[in-house]
Known about the structure:
The chain is built from 16 helices and 4 strands. It is α/β, with parallel strands linked by helices. α5 packs across α7 (161-170) and α15 crosses α16. InterPro entries: P-loop_NTPase (IPR027417), Sulfotransferase_dom (IPR000863).
Amino acid sequence: MSVIERTGTPVRKVRELHNHHIDSTIWNDFVFRDGDIVIASYGKSGTTWMQQIVGQLVFDGAPDVNVNELSPWLDLRIPEKATKLAALDAQTHRRFLKTHLPVDALVVSPKAKYLYCARDGRDVVWSLHNHHINANEEWFAAINDTPGRVGPPVPPADPDIRRYFHTWLAEDGAPFWSFWDNVRTWWHIRDQPNVLLVHYNALKRDLPGQLRRIAHFLDIAVEESQWPTILEHCSFEWMKTHAPRVAPLGGVFWDGGAQTFIHKGTNGRWHDVLTEADNREYEQQAIAELGEACAHWLATGEDEPEPVTQA
């Protein structure tokens, strides 16, 4: 179990993470600039949505921001390190990139701002299943056959989503990577001044308020007249309509293309599938892995309520 202590001291990388998708060593060679923005998540937690939000804030609501080109997943094994690092080095705007690493496998620089996106694990699995089961032959070839892969390949997705959920829960993120490590390590550094945690539920409940919160954290001043445009471009409907600009590689790795990658954007699709016992198992494991405060936040997007003091 990886734990990052909340000491207020700088966070240090203590391990590397390698698998069919990830090579964390690229962060050792990445040269940070003042103002870099790192968007982090376990995956399927609003990462692409956050990239669109940041792109709109950085480029002042421009309609033609191709976040799929401008904001790479740095620790993905493909394309090779040199190609990605050179492309980022050539960027002259304020850079924003993404990671799916836990904190202890990442370089956390005081020069950068870190936005961590989180979502209830059950919603993550339902989105992940859509991502996995619609992956085409090109996706499997790129992930499994590219030289440098560590560990077993990604198998085809189980078509039974409840069984898929149970495998993911029992094997902590299988066939991808640890969910609990990812959430736990970011939760433990939430008080760092250059870290902001954002919950998918909060984006759904109050997108205008969350956008202003994110802009304030990133020190981006937005003219009041620009907010309606930025909000429109950050809506799920706009992203679905312009999916090739948002989805990784324009959606070429999924049957149905970018429209498949930008799927429903809804929560709670597991309610009619998982049993009471299934949900109890998940919730008990969340508390055991994360503690009550973090598990509550992960499930709801709400902070732990203050205890009631008896008079």
